[in-house]
Amino acid sequence: MKAAEKVASIGAESFEQVVEGQEIQDVVTKEHYATEEVPMSQRNINFFDMIAIWVGANSNNASWYVGGTVAGMAFAGAITVTLISNPFAYLILALVGYMGYKVGTSTMALTRPAFGIRGSLLPTVLNTIVFLGWAVVNTFIAVISMSFILKDLFGWPAFGEPGSAGPMIFGITVMSLLNLAAVSLGRNSIKIVERIGIFLVLALGIWITIVVLSTHSFSAILSWRPPAEAVMPVGKAVDIMAAFSLAWVLGIAEFTRYTRSAKTATVAPLIGACVSLMWFAFIGIIATIGSAITTGIYNPENSDPSSLVTNLGLGWFALLLIVVACITTNVVNLMAAGISITNVTKKVKPLHSIWLVTVLAGVFMLVPLYLASFLDTFMGFLEYIGMVLSALLGVLVADYYFVQKRSYDVKEFEKVGGRYWYSKGVNLKAVAVWAFGVVFFLLVRDSALLGSSVGAVYPTILITALLYYLISLPGRKNTKLLS
Questions:
Q1: What residue ranges do the domains of the chain occupy?
Q2: 45-377 fold
Q3: Which pLDDT tens digit goes with each residue over 424-435?
Q4: What distance in Å separates the CA atoms of residue 432 and residue 405, rounded to the nearest whole number?
Q5: Which of 9, 12, 210, 473 has its CA 20 to 30 Å from the CA of residue 151?
C-alpha cells in the first residue's frame, strides 16, 4: 500500500510539474499590456540577451550617420563629444531600466505616477512618434546603403540619382516585410533575432572599420579640419549625441520588465549601448572625414561608408550585414512604439499593436523620398527629440527616485480616483514642469554659454528634475499628514 501510494504521489507530482511547466511556457510567450506587472516567474530575458538587444539597437547605419553629423568638430572634437555625451545618456537609460525591473511595467506605464493616469497620454503619444520616427529614419538610411550595393550588383540607380525612387521603394518594401517577420512573436522572436544578429553586426563593425582605415590615412583624418562655415559648435554636437542616445531611454523598460536581476536591467544595457554606439559613431566620423579628404568636399550626408565596402567585391555579404543591422535596431523601436499604444487602450492586444506600428512605419518610410534634404530632416528630428524628451526624463526620474522614493503601486496604475488620479486623471504639476522644460530648451539651445559647452539637453533634464522635486514636496508632506 505504501509503495502504491508513493508511486501515485510521484505520478501526481510529475503531472503537476508538467501542468505548471505548460502554464509557464504559455505565459512567457505572452506579450503583456503596458500597465501589467510582469511576475518574476514569467521573466525570460537574461544578461546576454540584454547585451545583445542593445548592441543590436546601436550597431547600425543610423549610428554611423549621427557620427558623421558631428564630424564638423574635426576628429578630436567629435570623438571627445561621443565619449562624454553618450555615457551620461546611458546612465539615465540604466536608471529607467531599473525602474522597469522593479515595477514590472512598460516605460510609458511608469509615467502614470508622475503625470497621472490620463496625463500619461502626453508622453505616450510623443514616445510613439519618436520610436516610429526612429524606425523610419533607421530603415531609410539602411535602404540608402542598399541602393549603392544594388547599383554595384545590378547597375540600378543609387539614392540621389535619376530613377532611384524605384529601387528605394523596393528596398523599403523588403525591409518592412523583414521587420514584420522579426517582431511577429514579440519579445521572443526579438530575442532570436538579437542572439543571431549580435555576431553579424559585430562582424559588420570590424569589417567596416578595416575598410575605412585601409582606404584613408588615419594621420590625415587626425589632421583634417572642416571649412570655417561648416564647423559645428560643441553644444550642438552634445545635443545631437544626447538626443540620439536618450531616445532609447523611453523604450528600455519594455525589456527590463522581463529581467530577473537589477544587474541585467542596468549593467547589461549600459555595456551594450555604450560600446556599440561609440564604435559605430567612430566609423561614421572617420568615414565622413575620409570622404572629405578624398573628394575635397565636406558633406555630412556621406557618413554612411557602405559604398566603400563594395570596392571589396563582397556586395552580397555587405547587403546581408546591413539588412541584419537594420533589423536588430528596428525591433527595439517597434516593440517600444507598439507597447506604448497599449498604455492608451487595451482594445488592441500588445502583439497586434506591435504589428500595427510596423505596418505604419513601412508606409511612413516613403515620406523621406520626397524631402529636399534628408540630413536637414534628420537634424530636425533629433532636435524635436531633445526638446520633448529631456524635459520628460527629468520629471520621470525625479518622481521615482526622489519624490516617491522608489515606491510605485502598480495596483493603482489604472484606478480612477486612486493614488495617481490627481486632478481628473492629470498631475498638472508634472505637465507644467514638462512645458517649462520645453520652453527652457528652446530659449537656451542657441545661447552663447551653453552652445559652446554642454548644450541644452542635459541642463534641461537637470532643471526639470529639480523643479519637479521642489514643487512636489508640499504635496508629499500633505499626503503624509493626511495619512
A1: 45-377
A2: Hydantoin permease (1.10.4160)
A3: 999 999 999 999
A4: 21
A5: 210
Nearest-angstrom CA–CA distance, 456 and 442:
8
Q: What pTM value is reported for the model?
A: 0.86
Q: How far is Cα 57 from Cα 272, in angstroms, rounded to an integer?
A: 9
Q: Are 306 and 151 in contact (CB under 8 A)?
A: no
Partners of 426 in the β-ladder: 423
What is the full DSSP assignment across 377-408?
HHHHHHHHHHHHHHHHHHHHHHIIIIISTT--
How far CA 100 is from CA of 6, 31, 442, in Å, comes to 44, 15, 30
Region of poorest pLDDT, from 31-45, 55-69, 100-114, 460-474:
55-69
Provide the residue type at 437 as one letter. G
SS3 of residue 309 by DSSP: helix
* Residue 156 in grid coordinates: 540600378
- The 10s digit of each residue's pLDDT in 260-317 is 999 999 999 999 999 999 999 998 899 889 888 888 888 776 665 555 555 545 567 7
**Phi, psi of 36, deg, nearest 5:** -80, 135
Residue 96 in contact with residue 110, Cβ under 8 Å? yes
Q: Per-residue confidence at 384, pLDDT binned at 50, 70, 90? A: confident
Running DSSP on this structure, what letter comes out for residue 422?
Answer: T
Distances (CA, A) of 250 to 109, 173, 341: 11, 27, 13
The tens digit of pLDDT for each residue in 333-362 reads 999 999 999 999 999 999 999 999 999 999
> Cβ neighbours of residue 129 under 8 Å, at least 6 residues apart?
none
